[in-house]
């Protein structure tokens, strides 16, 4: 019963977008989603500078015109003057989803004490869930997949566990993932038979 999903992947970095260094954000997002998703998916990718109007226009285009049910941004969530990803995301929001930011900071504190410097937010715009992730490429896996102990058992569940059901609730496709990477949770009444 898996359905196809279009996912917007937006890397927000002055230096990656001007070629100072190679962007690792979009490759890291692609790599993680490639391992995690068992549903068919395609990506709409954008590499853009830390410019609020550009970020807002990109999020609107992906949500409104490109049929993205999920948009993951990476970068620009910190306190530096040019970090404006959360402001741009909130500016295009219909609804704020505070649980994602709260939980990602909690997960990230297991990895770095500077996790509290990320102002990352998540919002719903129309039929799209938009989630900010920090710019460090490794933060993508850390926040989406969560934390494992030495035996590989999950000790802190990543936020991706809640993303498919959120997409169900806003009228998007039914998305499934590989339990070995991330165990998606849905209430019993919302579960569909496996393919
Ligand atoms: N797209 C990216 N590709 C590779 N590394 C990145 C990327 N974005 C961020 N990083 C790394 O993570 C660090 C922190 O990310 P942050 O978003 O704060 O970048 P920054 O220092 O504001 O600079 P910039 O916006 O030019 O990437 C960066 O200094 C860089 O080492
Ligand atoms: N999981 C995780 N979260 C993290 C980090 C990280 O390496 N891993 N880096 C932190 C740091 S150092 C900063 S400054 C903030 C904001 O990063 P950004 O401006 O690149 O989005 O995210 C924080 N959150």
Automatic annotation (TrEMBL):
Residues 8-154 form the MoaB/Mog domain. Pathway: Cofactor biosynthesis; molybdopterin biosynthesis. It comes from the Bacteria. Coiled coil: none annotated. It is an enzyme of class 2 (transferase). This is Molybdopterin adenylyltransferase. One of its GO terms (biological process) is Mo-molybdopterin cofactor biosynthetic process. Its EC number is 2.7.7.75. Keywords: ATP-binding, Molybdenum cofactor biosynthesis, Nucleotide-binding, Nucleotidyltransferase, Transferase. Pfam families: MoCF_biosynth (PF00994). It catalyses: molybdopterin + ATP + H(+) = adenylyl-molybdopterin + diphosphate. InterPro entries: MoaB/Mog-like_dom_sf, MoaB/Mog_dom, MoCF_biosynth_CS, MPT_Adenylyltrnsfr/MoaC-Rel.
